[in-house]
DNA sequence: CCGTATACCTAGTTATGCTAGGTATGGAAG
DNA sequence: CTTCCATACCTAGCATAACTAGGTATACGG
């Protein structure tokens, strides 16, 4: 479970440029060193949600010698949403660190 | 939303000693500097779940000049579960940091 | 030509946290 | 003394999120 941070992760995967769903899954898997091996049933609905919310835009591409692909790009709203999500993640993870540590640092 | 990390947080709040539900809520609020101000409808069911799972044990106390309180303690299983949750959190937050950073560090 | 990897999709299940209520008591304020 | 607030517990039902488990179709290698 990605526990509500999936959106941020997907948006971050698109920050370096447009990509299609399957590639996004690969990017996330590689960047997380295999920790986040997301099933398609998780990612595709998320992409649709994010597009619905105006954070992504999509276009079909049909390269001459390739399969049809739906390529997603960050919209301006998506970029700024990513910024907010990052901040929210920072606050959240900081707070969890503190609470889990009982107020003091704990070894990783 | 605490996104699946509520159990770890509650367990951690009980690590320093037994406490009752209301006090647990206060502890979490203080430790997180107000970030996690959990509604009772979140915490009480969680406590019941954790007891059901054998990670907590509870007993009613009725102090001479106080209200009735249900005091929860970490069981041995609860302690070890907390250890695992901490490790899981470490891995998870590390992975999210990496993915959100696009492979590089990003400023807090 | 057949299997595997690529590439997309969705209906339905499950879990989880929260909303919104309810009950009851102790202590402070008026 | 009575009224109100903080303490203290509880649950039913809602919303959402991610996942399971299916389905479709095409390119490419053996």
Structural commentary:
- 2 copies of one chain form a homodimer.
- Chain A is α+β, with helices and mostly antiparallel strands and 108 residues long.
- Chain A has a single domain (6-100), classed as Orthogonal Bundle (Arc Repressor Mutant, subunit A), CATH 1.10.10.10.
- Helices cover 53% and strands 13% of the residues of chain A.
- Chain A contains 4 helices and 3 strands, in the order H-E-H-H-E-E-H.
- Chain A has helices spanning 6-13, 21-31, 40-52, 76-100, and strands at residues 19-20, 56-61, 69-74.
- Chain A has a 3-stranded antiparallel sheet with strand order 1-3-2.
- In chain A, helix 2 (21-31) packs across helix 3 (40-52).
- Chain A is globular.
- Chain A starts with 5 loop residues before the first helix and ends in an 8-residue tail after the last helix.
- The mean pLDDT of chain A is 92.
- Chains A and B meet through helix 1 and helix 4 of A and helix 1 and helix 4 of B.
- The structure holds a DNA duplex (30 and 30 nucleotides).
Short description:
Chain A is an alpha+beta fold. The first copy, chain A, contains 4 helices and 3 strands. Chain A has a single domain, classed as Winged helix-like DNA-binding domain superfamily/Winged helix DNA-binding domain (Arc Repressor Mutant, subunit A, Orthogonal Bundle).
């Amino acid at each position: 479970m990605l526990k509500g941070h999936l959106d941020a992760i997907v948006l971050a995967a698109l920050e370096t440029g447009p990509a299609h769903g399957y590639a996004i899954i690969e990017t996330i898997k590689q960047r997380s060193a295999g920790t986040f091996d997301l099933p398609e049933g998780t990612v595709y609905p998320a992409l649709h949600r994010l597009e619905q919310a105006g954070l992504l835009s999509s276009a079909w591409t049909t390269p001459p010698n390739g399969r049809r692909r739906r390529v997603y790009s960050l919209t301006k709203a998506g970029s700024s949403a990513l910024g907010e999500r990052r901040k929210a993640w920072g606050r959240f993870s900081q707070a969890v660190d503190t609470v889990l540590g009982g107020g003091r640092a704990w070894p990783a």
